[in-house]
Amino acid sequence: MMRMAWRRFDQSAASLGRIGSLEVRLARSGDEVKQAQRLRYRIFYEEMSAVANARAAFFGRDSDPFDKVCDHLLVLDHDTMGAPEIVGTYRLLRQEIAEKRKGFYSAGEFQIASLVSRHTQRSFLELGRSCVLKPYRTKRTVELLWHGIWSYVRQNGIDVMVGCASLEGTDPRRLAPQLSFLRSYAPTPEEWRVRALPGRGISLDELAGGEEVNNLAVLRELPPLIKGYLRLGAYICEDAVIDWQFGTTDVFIVLPVERINTRYINYYGPDASRHAA
What angle is formed at CA 31 by the lines to CA 47 and CA 95, rounded to 5 degrees? Predict the structure, then answer.
């Protein structure tokens, strides 16, 4: 079987932003992608509940075939000893690459093809595999990640961002307050609806019980990256899917660029210049 070579990386890829010692940019080599995979393993498998196969455990890296066709957004800390340390990452897959290669990663859980086919004049970007090292889970790091994504969106003419967002745990009933809050806070209009694959979905509407929910308390419990999606104006689709390998319950995010809160566009700059290096 022929192995797919790593995609060619731009060794001179420019910085997409900087705050103090932290910089955001794309990976410039296969070795940097491997470092990001080690970070993902450390967080998903050692800190959270993902179940490693023999290969992942042996190499200490979270990897899959999509890594070879995606761009990898990195946050690096330049104040660490020796070389800068990768402390955060996001995986980016543009529609034109997905259509030439393996499709979208999230198509393994959700019917994303039907969404894309309804919006043939738009360019889609899938976001995924996001994680940040625990000491860096601060407003500054998340802000820099979003600055990098916004820069990438502007540079590549992206119209819509999509992807799975995860809540830790595989018991939807325990997560019902968070899931029903997400559904009620950011309901999806018909034109942007995406359902789970047949037999995979759990309806968020059915999880919503009659009991009183403290929305402020629920909001505080949400992962920072999901809260970031909500602040930007993302829609949350109506199904959740359990990812047994990663020990998570996933929802599908749809964020048309024109829906992004103008407050954030003004903050980062229409040309993503706020934290330009």
Answer: 85
Cα separation of 196 and 61, whole Å?
28
User: How far is residue 37's CA from residue 244's CA, in Å, rounded to a whole number?
Assistant: 19
Burial 40-78 (b: 16+ CB within 10 A, else e): bbbbbbeeeebebeeebeeeebbbeebbbbbbbbbbbbe
Q: Which segments of 48-131 does DSSP mark as H helices, in order?
A: 54-59, 95-100, 112-118
**Distance between CA atoms of 35 and 32, rounded to whole angstroms?**
5
Pairing of strands 124-132, 160-168: parallel
CB 84 within 8 A of CB 23: yes
Q: Give the residue from 136, 130, 138, 207 showing the smallest Cα distance to 166.
A: 130
Instruction: Please report, in angstroms and rounded to a whole number, the separation of the first and last CA atoms in the chain.
Output: 43
Nearest-Å Rg of the Cα atoms of the chain is: 18
Residue with tokens 């047949």: 198
- Provide the token pair at 79: 């104040």
Q: What is the pTM of this model?
A: 0.92
Compute mean pLDDT per 10 residues along the chain, 277 residues long, and list them: 47 84 96 97 94 93 96 95 92 97 95 96 97 92 93 97 96 91 91 96 80 79 88 94 95 96 89 80
- Alpha carbon separation from 11 to 23, 71, 144, 200, 251 (Å, rounded): 16, 13, 21, 41, 35
- 72: Cα within 13 Å, side-chain hemisphere: 31
Tell me which residue has tokens 């018909």: 190
* pLDDT for 166: 95
